[in-house]
Fold STAS domain-containing protein.
Amino acid sequence: MITNEGRVQAAFDSGVFVLKLCGDVRLTLCATLDTQAQQLARTPGLQSLIIDLREATNVDSTALGFLAKVAMAVKDRILYKPTIVVNNPDVQRMLEVMGFAQYFAMVEAPLTEACELSDLPEVPADMEEMRLRILEAHRILMRMSEHNREEFQPLVEMLEAQETSHSDKH
């Protein structure tokens, strides 16, 4: 059986951090991506960031929101925009429509292949943590462009309403 389960790999070498997303990357990996964003913001010696999407078959909006969070976490720490390596025209088009070109340089192939990548363990999250991360990811995407604001406003409002009803029960 062939699986297309998403996974995240990473490597850090000579000031270059490489984050590689493979397969079908969905919200179940958002805790892993969020943890990476927080760690990257504190990584000493960070000089550049490369996000490799060449083996990603799908990246859902929550995962995209956390990629944007990663870029924002390092923007004041590195000299150049983070780079996204993407050779799938559909994924590239999706990134362009969502405004990623403002925050990332997009290339079809890296200048050099990364050193050995390690699989990052999936960080578990309960339903409430997942809801909060989905909400955060989509708020980030909404700040990136008017298109995203119109696209994700209904979802954010629904998730915020769940937050209100959840708070009322306690």
Remarks:
- Helices lie at 30-41, 61-74, 89-97, 127-144, 146-168.
